[in-house]
Amino acid sequence: MGTLRAWLVAVCLCALGSSAQASEPQPVTYRVTLDVDWSAQTHPLDFPDRAHLTAIIGAVHHRRYSLFRDGDTASSGLESVAERGRTRLLRAELQEAADRGRVGSVIKGPHLDAVPGEIVLTVDVTQRHYLVSFVTMLAPSPDWFTGVSVDLRSSDGWVDRLEVPLLVWDAGTAGGETFYERTDDTQPRQSVRISSHPAFVFADGIKPIGRAIFERQ
User: Fold this and answer.
1) Domain that holds residue 180
2) Could you tell me if residue 15 is inside a domain?
3) Assign residue 50 a region: left if phi > 0, alpha if psi is -120 to 50, beta otherwise?
């Protein structure tokens, strides 16, 4: 009788384990290419010497988390990235969001020492965490950054290919009218918004500094 009971328990545990594995969302991998064409030719006004992009930092997440959004106030982590290109504080914020289940994984990517150029990375998304957001400082600048926040789902599953512009954003955390000027922190902080600086606004509208291309693998 004891042997039969042990066998039944083992079968039940095995079944539970198989069910749990089957319910785990299967990741979908995307190759992400940042094609950056920012240069003195594309954006000639006051184009800075030693222009570059700092390390990529971001997350795969769901709708209860937002890295940046038009009209929101920048977090301390986003401020640190936008003003100094430092990612440590934002990584801590992302880890806290991950502990709460809002972030599935943290995205880390290389910097771009000189522009124009290209950055390539891969990200894994799931049915639970299907949004991809990342940022990088536009350097040098007071508090300007570029990045994207996209939903990779489609009506019939997953997007096969998605291309989005790399716009320049103002974090609203520091003053400055030129690439090299940075005044004291803005108090109170202004909202995050697409930059209206003349270097990025042309007669036909706002000009991106490149594009981000998502390709399902």
Assistant:
1) 25-216
2) no
3) left
Long-range Cβ pairs for the range 75-81 (8 Å, 24+): 78/135, 78/145, 78/171, 78/192, 79/143, 79/171, 79/173, 79/189, 81/54, 81/57, 81/135, 81/136, 81/137, 81/145
pLDDT, one tens digit for every residue, the chain (217 residues):
555 454 444 444 344 344 334 455 689 999 999 999 999 999 999 999 999 999 999 999 999 999 999 999 999 999 999 999 999 999 999 999 999 999 999 999 999 999 999 999 999 999 999 999 999 999 999 999 999 999 999 988 999 999 999 999 999 999 888 999 877 676 677 999 999 999 999 999 999 999 999 999 9
Predicted TM-score of the model (pTM)? 0.86
Residues 6+ apart with CB under 8 A from 16: none
Burial class (CB in 10 A: 0-12, 13-18, 19+), 126: middle
What is the CATH number for 203? 2.60.40.2130
Structural domain total, the chain: 1
